[in-house]
Amino acid sequence: MLAGLADTWPARNTWAIDQLSLKYGDLAFRISQSSCKKISMKMKDYVSYMYLQHDEDPLYIFDDKFGETAPSLLKDYNVPHLFQEDLFEVLDGEQRPPFRWLIIGPERSGASWHVDPSLTSAWNTLLCGRKRWALYPPGRVPLGVTVHVNEDDGDVTIDTPSSLQWWLDFYPLLADEDKPIECTQLPGETVFVPSGWWHCVLNLEPTVAVTQNFVNSKNFEYVCLDMAPGYRHKGVCRVGLLALDDSSLEDLKMNMDYDKDDLSYADLTRKEKRIRVQEPITDPRYTTTANGVSKSYDLWKQGFSYDIKFLAMYLDKERNHYSSPWSSSNSIGPREMRDWLSKLWVGRPELRELVWKGACIALQADKWLDCLEEICAFHNFPSPTADEKLPVGTGSNPVYLLADCAIKILVEGGLEAAMYALGTELEFYSVLSKVNSPLKNHVPEVLASGIIYLDNGALKIVPWDGKGVPIVIGNCNLILENWKEDDFVFGVWGKKHFECRQAGMPMNEPINSAGCTSIWPFIITRRCKGKIFAQLRDMLSWEEMLNLTSFLGEQLRNLHLLPYPSSKNSSFSDIELKVKLPFADGYMEDIPTPEIPEEWKVFIRTLCRRKMNVTNRLENWGDPIPRTLIEKVDDYIPDDLTKLLNTFQAENGTNKSCKPCSWIHSDIMDDNVHMEPYRISTCSGGNASDPCLADNDCAVGNDHGDVDKSWCPSHILDFSNLSSGDRIYDVIPIYLDIFRGDSSLFKQFLESYRLPFLTRNQEEVIDGGDRFERLSYHAM
After folding, report:
1. Scanning 172, 519, 605, 772, which has its CA 20 to 30 A from the CA of 527?
2. What's in the keyword line of the UniProt record (predicted)?
């Protein structure tokens, strides 16, 4: 507890409750309460409630958006000089997690026992009133608190009594050795809460306070550890050794390899020595409770250390940290995490040693760097420089930008999914090389591709062009044995069948590639000069945006016109896919095979499987889908899914569809469109036919001078999500992510694409009375 840090703040004189009510009375602030819904009250109404209420657990203002609601409040205080460093500052706007709160509450209100999110540290300065604090060191769970850890994603939920209830009902049960560190905070005093410390706060009087959480060099690795996927390490970080079963505790005793002379361990030992150890209380009414909390204390003393080396022992090394499910309680998502580390790597080079340690914990960056170096050596590329050893971008696969090439290691979804992603991409490049499509000039050239795998501790590489099945993959039993060696076994048709199989599996059920967790496909493409659209969006002129829009329309049309691999020529054509669905009574039933064109059969079967458990999947997905919409989902899906195809019978008796099946990129977003710089004088009107790079620095993406250049679209990137199906599906990411819903840009795009998206063989089918057959329904 620190004094004097707020002596010069205007808030010391102006943040009295009545003054705040007078100045901000008509503004609404967020209320903290047990409901998951966000509730707000006007300041004047809340102050009236404070003076009139007699609640046991009162409402209190706990607002992380107070700076947006009343910006002048931010001028009334400063971050104390001890806590200036906050590494989350490099994240912009909504990417940055909540970090500051205005706290106003009457007596009896407060914060129940918790550990701050993502193991961040916090400071809390009181402006008026009195607060009572109780704190426990990391790993000591307070009496009356139960922690649940989800074994799938590590999400931690806490059952705890209210602050007042804990002080009244549980505190009296504690022996002296089990009591928390306690203090009473007075106006002008600041409490610092380090990473991982349990704390509980009770307002003794009406109070006003401000608090901020932060990440600095001291707790950075802990925050990265908490973000990492898995569950055991998260439980140990909060619950200590109580999170482990007996066998894990025995393993701990045998494998303790952390340094007990480490400063953090020594500090913890000194704190223990200051605690008075007495016999547990003997009152029979409390024997069980008291002995239980003393057991927690004994476990805590067995060897638990809040040291990053100790805690990192419990990371799941086998889990792929790049694409495994993340806990919903993480303060940022995996994409934001990768972006955060990348921005720190580029913007704070003095912290690179620390950032690298965090990236190894959260992203397994050291493992992927080993793979990168092996790939470079195999293909005689220069070794990656210090600037190049951290993956770039926010996607779910590690991507590295070297001087002249881009290397992507495919890990998302497990080995089988990664094989189909690369196989489909290579089949697409094969088709592209055989036709005279203008799209060739706007897709990065493939330099090499292959599979890297771990064999007896050593990394090995097998080149692979997408055809046939490499021996290392054949040994994994991912495919049947009778495929032709010259076929694209893992091409687009294989991918469609794989998606169909996956559609019938429960959410998050692992893909069947057991024993193959140390095999990763990779692809090397020539590096594009310039920048991705995501980096340029805010600086482009309207003319440049229209030029980009026309470019996307033209190239998307070129993509959709490419010859599509026929299912009849596919190695899957000789095998009838048997799709069976589980029903509630335990029996299995075949999906009826409708009379539909061959190229759409797998597509319809996949939709049928997805439809069977759509409500369950949406419920598991959670926010932002309202319950009322989930209950009505069946109203939006036709009973007969073949209506989506607008099928008809041709003169020769074969079944045809008004909807052509074609290649679709399915992921054209702002990070998958590349643009090259031009001198304004040579690129008027956005003409991209005569490229003239402005200078070499800009060509490799340096920031200086961008405002003086014109940018023209050059390439579409990342075809690992390439699929097949309805062309109109490709419009969704473009309209939402590139155009941000701008109707004039969308109109320009459609004119450049040159509609129709559908082949209008039968007008009456397209515009018929059934809504599922209307083009407007298909678009939605």
Report:
1. 519
2. Iron, Metal-binding, Nucleus, Oxidoreductase
Residue 614: its H or E element = helix 614-621
Total domains present in the chain: 4
> Quick one: tokens of 701?
């993406």
510: confidence class by pLDDT, cuts 50, 70, 90: very low
Is there a domain that residue 438 lies in? yes
Give percent above pLDDT 70 in the chain: 79
Per-residue confidence at 279, pLDDT binned at 50, 70, 90? very low
HEC profile of 257-319: CCCCCCHHHHHHHHHHHCCCCCCCCCCHHHHHHHHHHHHHHHHHHCCCCCCHHHHHCCCCCCC
Strand partners, 455: 458
CATH number at residue 132: 2.60.120.650
φ and ψ at residue 716, rounded to 5 degrees:
-105, 135
- Residues 599, 493: one domain? no
Helix (H, G, I), strand (E, B) or coil at 743: helix
Q: Which amino acid belongs to residue 759?
A: T
Q: What is the pLDDT of residue 243?
A: 77
Same domain for 765 and 650: yes
Exposed e or buried b for every residue in 362-396, given b needs 16+ CB within 10 A? bbbbebbbebbebbbebeebeebeeebbbbbbbbb
Residues in CB range of 618: below 8 A, 6 or more apart: 625, 630, 633
What is the per-residue pLDDT across 153-198, written as a single tens digit (0 to 9) for each? Answer: 778 888 999 999 999 999 999 998 899 999 999 999 999 999 999 9
SS3 assignment, position 755:
coil
703 and 563 Cβ atoms separated by less than 8 Å: no
Reading phi first (left if > 0) and then psi (alpha if -120 to 50, else beta), residue 649 is in beta
**In this structure, are 17 and 78 located in the same domain?**
yes
DSSP string, 179-233: PPEEEEE-TTEEEEE-TT-EEEEEESS-EEEEEEEE--TTTHHHHHHHHSS-SHH
Please give the Cα distance from 550 to 544 (Å, whole number): 10
Cα distances from 574 to residues 494, 580, 700, 732, 777, in angstroms, run: 13, 19, 49, 34, 35
CB distance 494 to 572 below 8 Å: yes
Q: Which residues contact 332 (CB under 8 A, 6 or more apart)?
A: 91, 95, 97, 118, 227, 340
End-to-end Cα separation, the chain, in angstroms = 57
Q: Do 522 and 632 belong together in one domain?
A: no
User: Residue 659 belongs to what domain range?
Assistant: 543-666+725-780
DSSP bridge partners of 213: 122
What secondary structure does DSSP assign to 623-673, as a single string?
A: TTS-HHHHHTGGGGS-SSGGGGG-EEE-TTS-EEESS-EEEE-----TTSE
Residue 211's CB is within 10 A of a number of other CB atoms, namely 22
Structure tokens at 160: 């705890």
Tens of pLDDT, residue by residue over 427-466, are 999 999 999 899 999 999 999 999 999 998 899 999 999 9
Give residue-wise pLDDT tens across range 287-314. 444 555 666 666 666 678 899 999 998 8
Of 279, 312, 345, the one marking the end of a domain is 312
**In what helix (H) or strand (E) does residue 494 lie, and over which residues does it extend?**
helix 492-503
User: Residue 131: pLDDT band by 50, 70, 90 thresholds?
Assistant: very high
The rounded radius of gyration (Å) of the Cα atoms in the chain is 30
- For residues 40 and 130, membership in a common domain is answered with yes
3 state DSSP class of 525: strand
Which residue, 572, 757, 521, is CA-closest to 661?
757
Phi, psi of 643 (to 5 degrees): -60, -25
Q: Is-contact 20 208, C-beta < 8 A?
A: yes
Residues 189, 65 share a domain = yes
Residue 391 belongs to a domain: no
Q: Which of 206, 231, 466, 431 is nearest to 325 (CA)?
A: 231
Domain-ending residue, one of 312, 339, 368: 312
Give bridge partners of residue 724 from the DSSP assignment: 663
